[in-house]
UniProtKB/TrEMBL annotation:
Annotated InterPro entries: Alba-like_dom_sf, SpoVS
A Pfam entry, by short name: SpoVS
GO molecular function: nucleic acid binding
Name of the protein in its database record: Stage V sporulation protein S
Length: 93
């Protein structure tokens, strides 16, 4: 599964293209973000990608979870949000 890392400076439109391409190629992608602006950009990018998919007659499901991270090998643990995006069969619904 591809993993896309989102930062506060990520362009949601470009992220949506990367999400769409990953869904077309492998059927699923993980999007990780840490920080309020990064999470906001991730949600916007995924929403744009889903809107584009619906126009094309496709759809996908999104699940999210917290993912603990240790930065710089230190003792402090930070949390990131991991969005798992999977293609679903639109005809089944």
């Amino acid at each position: 599964m591809d993993v896309l890392k989102v930062s506060a400076s990520t362009d949601p439109s470009k992220l949506s293209g990367a999400v769409s391409a990953a869904i077309r190629n492998s059927g699923e992608v993980a999007v990780t973000a840490m920080g309020a602006k990064a999470v906001f950009n991730a949600v916007r990018g995924i929403a744009i990608a889903r809107g584009r998919a619906l126009v094309e007659g496709a759809d996908f499901d999104v699940k999210f979870m917290f993912r603990p991270l240790r930065l710089d090998g230190g003792d402090r643990e930070r949390s990131a949000i991991k969005f798992v995006v999977k293609k679903v069969d639109a005809a089944a619904e």
